Amino acid sequence: MANITIYDIAKESGLSIATVSRYQNNKVVSDKSRQAIMKAIEKHNYTPNAAAQSLAAGARVLGIMVNDIRNPYLASLSAACEIAANKQGYSVLLCNLFDNRNLELKHLDKLYAQRVEAIIQLGLSTDALVSDPSYVDKVKRLIRKTPFVTSGKLDGVRSYSVNLDHIMAVNIMFDYLTSLGHRKIAFVGGKFFNQSAYDKKNEYIRLMKSRSITFPAEFIQEKGYDEETGFECMQRLFKLKTRPSAIMAISDECAIGVIHAARNHGLSVPEDLSVIGYDNTFLAEVARPRLTSVDCNIPHYGAILVDVAIRAARDEKPSRKIILDTRLVTRESCGKAPGYNKAKK
Q1: Is there a contact between 189 and 233 (Cβ–Cβ < 8 Å)?
Q2: Domain spans of the chain, in order of start
Protein backbone atom coordinates (compact mmCIF):
# COMPACT_ATOMS: atom_id res chain seq x y z
CA MET A 1 0.00 0.00 0.00
CA ALA A 2 1.32 3.42 -0.97
CA ASN A 3 2.35 5.82 1.78
CA ILE A 4 -0.51 8.08 2.82
CA THR A 5 0.34 11.77 2.80
CA ILE A 6 -1.27 15.00 3.87
CA TYR A 7 -2.45 15.36 0.27
CA ASP A 8 -4.49 12.14 0.57
CA ILE A 9 -6.01 13.28 3.87
CA ALA A 10 -6.95 16.64 2.36
CA LYS A 11 -8.58 14.93 -0.62
CA GLU A 12 -10.42 12.40 1.52
CA SER A 13 -11.78 15.06 3.89
CA GLY A 14 -12.65 17.49 1.11
CA LEU A 15 -10.49 20.20 2.68
CA SER A 16 -7.43 22.17 1.67
CA ILE A 17 -3.88 21.06 2.50
CA ALA A 18 -3.53 24.24 4.54
CA THR A 19 -6.50 23.31 6.73
CA VAL A 20 -5.15 19.81 7.36
CA SER A 21 -1.74 21.31 8.13
CA ARG A 22 -3.30 23.71 10.67
CA TYR A 23 -5.04 20.79 12.37
CA GLN A 24 -1.90 18.64 12.68
CA ASN A 25 0.02 21.64 14.06
CA ASN A 26 -2.62 22.17 16.76
CA LYS A 27 -3.98 25.36 15.25
CA VAL A 28 -7.64 26.43 15.17
CA VAL A 29 -9.95 24.73 12.66
CA SER A 30 -13.74 24.43 12.69
CA ASP A 31 -15.42 21.50 14.43
CA LYS A 32 -16.74 20.29 11.08
CA SER A 33 -13.28 20.32 9.55
CA ARG A 34 -11.78 18.63 12.59
CA GLN A 35 -14.31 15.78 12.39
CA ALA A 36 -13.66 15.28 8.66
CA ILE A 37 -9.89 15.22 9.15
CA MET A 38 -10.08 12.82 12.11
CA LYS A 39 -12.29 10.48 10.10
CA ALA A 40 -9.84 10.47 7.16
CA ILE A 41 -6.87 9.94 9.48
CA GLU A 42 -8.55 7.00 11.20
CA LYS A 43 -9.58 5.44 7.88
CA HIS A 44 -6.04 5.51 6.48
CA ASN A 45 -4.15 5.06 9.76
CA TYR A 46 -2.23 8.21 8.87
CA THR A 47 0.82 9.41 10.83
CA PRO A 48 2.01 12.95 10.07
CA ASN A 49 5.46 13.22 8.52
CA ALA A 50 7.95 14.51 11.09
CA ALA A 51 9.95 16.40 8.47
CA ALA A 52 6.86 18.21 7.24
CA GLN A 53 5.94 19.16 10.80
CA SER A 54 9.39 20.55 11.48
CA LEU A 55 9.13 22.61 8.31
CA ALA A 56 5.82 24.02 9.43
CA ALA A 57 7.44 24.93 12.73
CA GLY A 58 9.98 27.08 10.91
CA ALA A 59 13.00 24.85 10.23
CA ARG A 60 15.57 26.26 7.82
CA VAL A 61 15.18 24.05 4.77
CA LEU A 62 15.85 24.37 1.05
CA GLY A 63 14.15 22.24 -1.56
CA ILE A 64 16.27 20.80 -4.38
CA MET A 65 14.68 19.27 -7.46
CA VAL A 66 17.19 17.29 -9.52
CA ASN A 67 16.34 15.61 -12.81
CA ASP A 68 18.21 12.36 -12.16
CA ILE A 69 20.56 11.72 -9.24
CA ARG A 70 22.05 8.76 -11.16
CA ASN A 71 23.73 11.21 -13.53
CA PRO A 72 27.29 11.73 -12.16
CA TYR A 73 27.27 15.46 -12.89
CA LEU A 74 23.87 16.07 -11.27
CA ALA A 75 24.78 13.82 -8.34
CA SER A 76 27.93 15.86 -7.73
CA LEU A 77 26.11 19.18 -8.09
CA SER A 78 23.31 18.07 -5.74
CA ALA A 79 25.87 16.99 -3.15
CA ALA A 80 27.68 20.32 -3.52
CA CYS A 81 24.41 22.16 -2.89
CA GLU A 82 23.67 20.11 0.22
CA ILE A 83 27.17 20.62 1.62
CA ALA A 84 26.91 24.37 1.02
CA ALA A 85 23.43 24.48 2.60
CA ASN A 86 24.63 22.60 5.69
CA LYS A 87 27.48 25.07 6.14
CA GLN A 88 24.93 27.87 6.32
CA GLY A 89 22.75 26.02 8.83
CA TYR A 90 20.17 24.72 6.35
CA SER A 91 18.85 21.24 5.70
CA VAL A 92 17.83 20.01 2.26
CA LEU A 93 14.82 18.18 0.91
CA LEU A 94 15.99 16.43 -2.28
CA CYS A 95 13.46 15.40 -4.92
CA ASN A 96 14.35 13.26 -7.94
CA LEU A 97 12.40 13.95 -11.13
CA PHE A 98 13.63 11.04 -13.27
CA ASP A 99 12.86 12.97 -16.48
CA ASN A 100 9.16 12.80 -15.58
CA ARG A 101 7.17 16.03 -15.96
CA ASN A 102 4.23 14.77 -13.91
CA LEU A 103 6.60 13.98 -11.06
CA GLU A 104 8.17 17.41 -11.51
CA LEU A 105 4.81 19.12 -10.91
CA LYS A 106 4.04 16.87 -7.95
CA HIS A 107 7.37 17.58 -6.25
CA LEU A 108 7.02 21.31 -6.88
CA ASP A 109 3.65 21.27 -5.11
CA LYS A 110 5.04 19.25 -2.22
CA LEU A 111 8.02 21.50 -1.62
CA TYR A 112 5.78 24.55 -1.73
CA ALA A 113 3.30 22.96 0.71
CA GLN A 114 6.13 22.04 3.06
CA ARG A 115 7.17 25.70 3.21
CA VAL A 116 10.80 25.36 2.18
CA GLU A 117 12.51 28.74 2.18
CA ALA A 118 13.56 28.46 -1.47
CA ILE A 119 13.60 25.91 -4.29
CA ILE A 120 16.60 25.07 -6.47
CA GLN A 121 15.88 23.15 -9.67
CA LEU A 122 18.59 21.29 -11.57
CA GLY A 123 17.33 20.14 -14.96
CA LEU A 124 14.19 18.98 -16.78
CA SER A 125 11.82 21.90 -17.51
CA THR A 126 14.48 24.46 -16.65
CA ASP A 127 16.77 22.88 -19.27
CA ALA A 128 14.23 23.25 -22.06
CA LEU A 129 15.01 25.35 -25.13
CA VAL A 130 11.37 26.53 -25.08
CA SER A 131 9.81 26.70 -21.62
CA ASP A 132 6.55 24.83 -21.05
CA PRO A 133 3.82 27.50 -20.56
CA SER A 134 1.98 25.40 -17.96
CA TYR A 135 5.13 25.00 -15.89
CA VAL A 136 5.90 28.70 -16.26
CA ASP A 137 2.42 29.55 -14.91
CA LYS A 138 2.89 27.15 -12.01
CA VAL A 139 6.23 28.67 -10.99
CA LYS A 140 4.87 32.20 -11.42
CA ARG A 141 2.27 31.45 -8.74
CA LEU A 142 4.86 29.85 -6.50
CA ILE A 143 7.45 32.66 -6.54
CA ARG A 144 5.04 35.07 -4.89
CA LYS A 145 6.09 33.40 -1.64
CA THR A 146 8.97 31.04 -2.42
CA PRO A 147 12.12 32.06 -4.36
CA PHE A 148 12.97 29.80 -7.30
CA VAL A 149 16.58 29.28 -8.43
CA THR A 150 17.70 27.23 -11.43
CA SER A 151 20.85 26.03 -13.15
CA GLY A 152 19.04 26.64 -16.45
CA LYS A 153 16.33 29.14 -17.30
CA LEU A 154 12.57 29.57 -17.30
CA ASP A 155 11.18 32.00 -19.86
CA GLY A 156 8.86 34.71 -18.58
CA VAL A 157 9.54 34.06 -14.89
CA ARG A 158 11.36 36.39 -12.50
CA SER A 159 13.35 33.55 -11.06
CA TYR A 160 17.07 33.38 -10.33
CA SER A 161 19.55 31.54 -12.53
CA VAL A 162 23.15 30.46 -12.05
CA ASN A 163 24.52 29.21 -15.37
CA LEU A 164 27.79 27.90 -16.68
CA ASP A 165 29.37 29.73 -19.61
CA HIS A 166 28.80 26.95 -22.14
CA ILE A 167 29.87 29.14 -25.07
CA MET A 168 33.24 29.76 -23.44
CA ALA A 169 33.58 26.04 -22.72
CA VAL A 170 33.05 25.06 -26.35
CA ASN A 171 35.64 27.64 -27.41
CA ILE A 172 38.13 26.21 -24.93
CA MET A 173 37.57 22.67 -26.24
CA PHE A 174 37.78 23.75 -29.87
CA ASP A 175 40.90 25.89 -29.42
CA TYR A 176 42.69 23.07 -27.64
CA LEU A 177 41.92 20.52 -30.34
CA THR A 178 42.86 22.84 -33.19
CA SER A 179 46.11 23.68 -31.42
CA LEU A 180 46.91 19.98 -31.74
CA GLY A 181 46.23 20.14 -35.47
CA HIS A 182 42.73 18.67 -35.51
CA ARG A 183 40.28 19.80 -38.17
CA LYS A 184 38.10 16.70 -38.42
CA ILE A 185 36.29 17.42 -35.16
CA ALA A 186 32.87 15.89 -34.36
CA PHE A 187 30.34 17.00 -31.75
CA VAL A 188 28.80 14.02 -29.97
CA GLY A 189 25.78 13.75 -27.68
CA GLY A 190 23.12 15.92 -26.12
CA LYS A 191 19.46 16.56 -26.76
CA PHE A 192 19.03 19.68 -28.81
CA PHE A 193 15.67 20.56 -27.31
CA ASN A 194 17.74 21.36 -24.21
CA GLN A 195 19.11 24.92 -24.13
CA SER A 196 22.68 24.11 -23.10
CA ALA A 197 23.12 21.35 -25.70
CA TYR A 198 21.57 23.55 -28.37
CA ASP A 199 23.94 26.42 -27.52
CA LYS A 200 26.99 24.14 -27.52
CA LYS A 201 26.08 22.64 -30.90
CA ASN A 202 25.54 26.07 -32.48
CA GLU A 203 28.84 27.36 -31.14
CA TYR A 204 30.60 24.28 -32.52
CA ILE A 205 29.12 25.01 -35.96
CA ARG A 206 30.11 28.67 -35.76
CA LEU A 207 33.67 27.83 -34.80
CA MET A 208 34.08 25.24 -37.55
CA LYS A 209 32.83 27.73 -40.13
CA SER A 210 35.03 30.51 -38.72
CA ARG A 211 38.08 28.33 -39.51
CA SER A 212 36.65 27.48 -42.97
CA ILE A 213 36.46 23.82 -41.96
CA THR A 214 33.94 21.87 -44.01
CA PHE A 215 32.38 18.86 -42.32
CA PRO A 216 29.59 16.37 -43.02
CA ALA A 217 26.27 16.87 -41.22
CA GLU A 218 26.87 13.50 -39.53
CA PHE A 219 29.72 15.05 -37.53
CA ILE A 220 26.95 16.35 -35.25
CA GLN A 221 25.50 13.38 -33.37
CA GLU A 222 22.46 13.86 -31.10
CA LYS A 223 21.12 11.25 -28.71
CA GLY A 224 21.68 11.75 -24.99
CA TYR A 225 24.31 12.16 -22.31
CA ASP A 226 25.26 8.66 -21.16
CA GLU A 227 27.91 6.11 -22.08
CA GLU A 228 25.54 4.34 -24.47
CA THR A 229 25.14 7.62 -26.36
CA GLY A 230 28.89 7.94 -26.88
CA PHE A 231 29.20 4.33 -28.02
CA GLU A 232 26.27 4.43 -30.47
CA CYS A 233 27.16 7.83 -31.92
CA MET A 234 30.75 6.75 -32.48
CA GLN A 235 29.54 3.60 -34.23
CA ARG A 236 27.69 5.83 -36.70
CA LEU A 237 30.75 8.01 -37.22
CA PHE A 238 32.86 4.96 -38.06
CA LYS A 239 30.58 4.31 -41.05
CA LEU A 240 31.44 7.65 -42.65
CA LYS A 241 33.87 7.95 -45.53
CA THR A 242 35.53 10.83 -43.70
CA ARG A 243 36.06 9.94 -40.05
CA PRO A 244 36.79 12.45 -37.28
CA SER A 245 40.19 12.61 -35.64
CA ALA A 246 38.78 14.27 -32.50
CA ILE A 247 35.55 14.22 -30.51
CA MET A 248 33.97 16.95 -28.41
CA ALA A 249 31.62 14.98 -26.12
CA ILE A 250 28.62 16.44 -24.30
CA SER A 251 29.60 14.76 -21.01
CA ASP A 252 32.26 12.61 -19.40
CA GLU A 253 29.95 9.59 -19.58
CA CYS A 254 29.45 10.14 -23.28
CA ALA A 255 33.21 10.52 -23.81
CA ILE A 256 33.85 7.17 -22.11
CA GLY A 257 31.37 5.53 -24.50
CA VAL A 258 33.29 7.06 -27.41
CA ILE A 259 36.56 5.59 -26.07
CA HIS A 260 35.00 2.12 -25.75
CA ALA A 261 33.72 2.26 -29.33
CA ALA A 262 37.15 3.32 -30.58
CA ARG A 263 38.78 0.37 -28.84
CA ASN A 264 36.22 -1.98 -30.37
CA HIS A 265 37.39 -0.74 -33.77
CA GLY A 266 41.03 -1.32 -32.91
CA LEU A 267 41.80 2.37 -32.47
CA SER A 268 43.95 3.86 -29.76
CA VAL A 269 43.09 6.99 -27.75
CA PRO A 270 44.76 9.44 -28.14
CA GLU A 271 47.08 8.15 -30.91
CA ASP A 272 44.25 7.57 -33.42
CA LEU A 273 41.42 9.56 -31.85
CA SER A 274 41.39 12.46 -29.37
CA VAL A 275 38.46 12.80 -26.97
CA ILE A 276 37.36 15.67 -24.70
CA GLY A 277 34.65 15.25 -22.06
CA TYR A 278 32.53 17.79 -20.22
CA ASP A 279 31.86 18.32 -16.47
CA ASN A 280 35.15 16.88 -15.12
CA THR A 281 33.37 14.42 -12.84
CA PHE A 282 35.16 11.58 -11.01
CA LEU A 283 34.78 9.58 -14.24
CA ALA A 284 37.46 11.70 -15.90
CA GLU A 285 40.07 10.43 -13.43
CA VAL A 286 39.04 6.75 -13.52
CA ALA A 287 38.76 6.57 -17.33
CA ARG A 288 41.61 4.93 -19.24
CA PRO A 289 43.24 6.92 -20.62
CA ARG A 290 42.39 9.62 -18.11
CA LEU A 291 39.99 12.04 -19.71
CA THR A 292 40.66 15.64 -20.69
CA SER A 293 37.50 17.46 -19.63
CA VAL A 294 35.86 20.84 -19.11
CA ASP A 295 35.83 21.58 -15.39
CA CYS A 296 32.78 23.35 -13.97
CA ASN A 297 34.13 23.78 -10.41
CA ILE A 298 31.10 21.93 -9.07
CA PRO A 299 31.69 22.71 -5.36
CA HIS A 300 31.75 26.44 -6.19
CA TYR A 301 28.74 26.09 -8.49
CA GLY A 302 26.68 24.43 -5.74
CA ALA A 303 27.75 27.05 -3.21
CA ILE A 304 26.63 29.89 -5.49
CA LEU A 305 23.25 28.26 -6.19
CA VAL A 306 22.65 27.89 -2.45
CA ASP A 307 23.89 31.38 -1.63
CA VAL A 308 21.51 32.91 -4.18
CA ALA A 309 18.61 30.83 -2.82
CA ILE A 310 19.23 31.83 0.80
CA ARG A 311 19.79 35.50 -0.01
CA ALA A 312 16.59 35.56 -2.08
CA ALA A 313 14.68 33.93 0.79
CA ARG A 314 15.99 36.69 3.09
CA ASP A 315 14.95 39.31 0.54
CA GLU A 316 18.54 40.45 0.11
CA LYS A 317 18.01 40.88 -3.66
CA PRO A 318 20.83 38.79 -5.17
CA SER A 319 21.63 39.01 -8.89
CA ARG A 320 18.91 37.54 -11.06
CA LYS A 321 21.44 35.93 -13.41
CA ILE A 322 24.98 34.76 -12.71
CA ILE A 323 27.27 33.14 -15.30
CA LEU A 324 30.23 31.08 -14.09
CA ASP A 325 33.47 30.41 -15.95
CA THR A 326 34.79 26.98 -16.88
CA ARG A 327 38.31 25.71 -17.55
CA LEU A 328 39.91 22.78 -19.33
CA VAL A 329 41.69 20.10 -17.32
CA THR A 330 44.11 18.32 -19.64
CA ARG A 331 44.93 14.66 -19.11
CA GLU A 332 45.85 11.84 -21.51
CA SER A 333 42.86 11.47 -23.87
CA CYS A 334 43.98 14.07 -26.43
CA GLY A 335 46.98 14.07 -28.72
CA LYS A 336 48.17 15.61 -31.95
CA ALA A 337 46.16 14.96 -35.08
CA PRO A 338 47.52 12.03 -37.12
CA GLY A 339 50.17 13.36 -39.48
CA TYR A 340 50.17 16.83 -37.88
CA ASN A 341 53.94 17.02 -37.34
CA LYS A 342 54.61 15.86 -40.88
CA ALA A 343 52.20 18.45 -42.24
CA LYS A 344 54.00 21.23 -40.31
CA LYS A 345 57.33 20.22 -41.83
Answers
A1: yes
A2: 6-163, 166-296+328-344
Classified by CATH at the fold level, domain 166-296+328-344 comes out as Rossmann fold (3.40.50)
* Integer Cα distance of 37 and 142 in angstroms: 26
Fold match between domain 6-163 and domain 166-296+328-344: yes
pLDDT digits (tens, 9 = 90+) for 135-147: 999 999 888 889 9
Which pTM does this prediction carry? Answer: 0.82
Q: Can you tell me the distance from the alpha carbon of 163 to that of 262, in angstroms, rounded to the nearest whole number?
A: 33
pLDDT in tens, 242-297: 999 999 999 999 999 999 999 999 999 999 999 999 999 999 999 999 999 999 99
Give alpha helix (H) positions in 116-226. Answer: 133-142, 166-179, 195-210
Architecture in CATH for domain 6-163 = 3-Layer(aba) Sandwich (3.40)
